[in-house]
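Chain A, query sequence.
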Amino acid sequence: MSEYKQSPANCPEANRQADLPLPLEPVYAPDPATASDVAAAQNSVPEASNQQALELLYRDQHLVVINKPSGLLVHRSPIDRHETRFALQLVRDQIGQYVYPVHRLDKPTSGALIFALDRDSARQLSASFANAAIRKRYLAVVRGYAPQQCLIDHPLSQQFDKMTTTAANKPPQQATTALQRLATVELPHSVDRYPHSRYSLVQLQPTTGRKHQLRRHLKHIAHPIIGDAKHGKGLHNRFFQQHYNCQRLLLACTELQFTHPVSGQPLTVTAGLDSSFSRIISAFGWQSVVADIMPAAKPVC
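Chain A, predicted structure.
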């Protein structure tokens, strides 16, 4: 497996080596839930809701896993004060009991998201994220022909928003992401400076959990994720909006592997793709590739 350091030239577009299976690596929580998050969940009072039900991928008396839609915040945030819908409240209302966040997905990212249903499970699951004991797989559509496989090893500086008071002079943090290219397509459209446009379907396994790690790493290797308004390319984002009615970031957490906090049994939860993402998969003829790596999920009623 090739390894990136500081330049995308270390992993060329046309890598001719045979595809090899990615090793299953542990993943740190992208943004571990804080004590205040748990307190907010505990002190919230369930209310009736007429919103469309979220897809439940797994549920027992200790935890629930949902398929978070793109565009939905996990919980309230002072940065997005205008938002009125949050995964935490929607799940709480849907199942009729308190839920505790143990990790997060970025607002534009869809996919598998775990909530604990009691304090002890919340503590154990949060510790599993912190101790790199939970494994994740993502699917993304990126610009260009991505390398067949590589390890992106590129430290990332901490990103701070306007609500953060912590000093921003800390050194970059280690960040690594394993990438495997699953499929490619070349379209007869001149989106940028080339007569044709190329795109890749990639599988990503982050082995660390920095803020916006996958989006920043794919930008670093010059294969930004389609739909990424901050780290991507506007020309390609608009092309997907106009030709495929795709208004979202094409990044989804499609699989979680972890140990049950009470039974100790291994669990694998798979999250399917939404209609917008699936429309791209169909348009590019990638259905069989996705079917091979994503067995049909059976939602929990």
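Residues 5-50 have pLDDT under 50 and may be disordered. The chain has one domain: 2-7+25-159+170-293.
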